[in-house]
Amino acid sequence: MLIKIADSWKNILAEELEKEYFKELIYFIKKEYQEHTCYPKETDIFAAFDYCRFEDIKVVVIGQDPYHGVGQANGLCFSVHEGMKHPPSLINIFKEIETDLGISIPKSGDLSRWAQQGVLLLNATLTVRAHEAGSHQQKGWEQFTDTVIQKISENREDVVFLLWGGYAKKKGAKIDKKKHHVLTSGHPSPLSANRGYWFGNKHFSQTNNFLVANQMEKIRW
């Protein structure tokens, strides 16, 4: 397994990649991928960084775990490979966009088109064992992604952070709210959404309004 992080992130994360915990994490992940089926595929583990250069970040969406079903995870949180059925959380995201912005639900659940516009789709844990949700939690990924969030907070300004659900809100502790725009709501999962904690948050129009007000191009959701 090659740990290949996009060039725009190398200097930002160079120190982190040399830390002992990260080396132990990579040793663990290599072993997991050798002995078990894991997702996403090895070349997609750092896809969030490949698609979205550090200097291009406008929006950060924080997820938790990659999807653990066959062929779903593509390295971007909430996103699935082209041709895959939309998971329930993604359906609710698209429903909110439809209500908020009048954009019809797309056939493809591949969100790389968002990432290419400056939306960092970051899972807190970047890998998972097949059919075992949370199986790679507490191995070091959370520390790594905390650092990613902190580096964005420290080195960029006027980034919109979308924190959906309790887990993402906790990760938000690393964000300087004086420098950045933070929007929070319930998680788009059916459990949360059906209780009224997701629908109507208008995060997508609010994000675009903020970007336009700060002389940035809005996201084509």
From TrEMBL:
Belongs to the uracil-DNA glycosylase (UDG) superfamily. UNG family. CDD domains: UDG-F1-like. PROSITE patterns: U_DNA_GLYCOSYLASE. Its EC number is 3.2.2.27. One of its GO terms (molecular function) is uracil DNA N-glycosylase activity. Signal peptide: none annotated. This is Uracil-DNA glycosylase. Keywords: Cytoplasm, DNA damage, DNA repair, Glycosidase, Hydrolase. The lineage of its organism: Bacteria, Pseudomonadati, Bacteroidota, Flavobacteriia, Flavobacteriales. It is found in: Cytoplasm. Its main location: cytoplasm. The keyword Thylakoid does not apply. Excises uracil residues from the DNA which can arise as a result of misincorporation of dUMP residues by DNA polymerase or due to deamination of cytosine. The active site is at 65 (proton acceptor). InterPro entries: UDG_fam1 (IPR002043), Ura-DNA_Glyclase_AS (IPR018085), Uracil-DNA_glycosylase-like (IPR005122), Uracil-DNA_glycosylase-like_sf (IPR036895). It is an enzyme of class 3 (hydrolase). Residues 49-211 form the Uracil-DNA glycosylase-like domain. The keyword DNA damage applies. It catalyses: Hydrolyzes single-stranded DNA or mismatched double-stranded DNA and polynucleotides, releasing free uracil. Gene3D superfamilies: Uracil-DNA glycosylase-like domain (3.40.470.10).
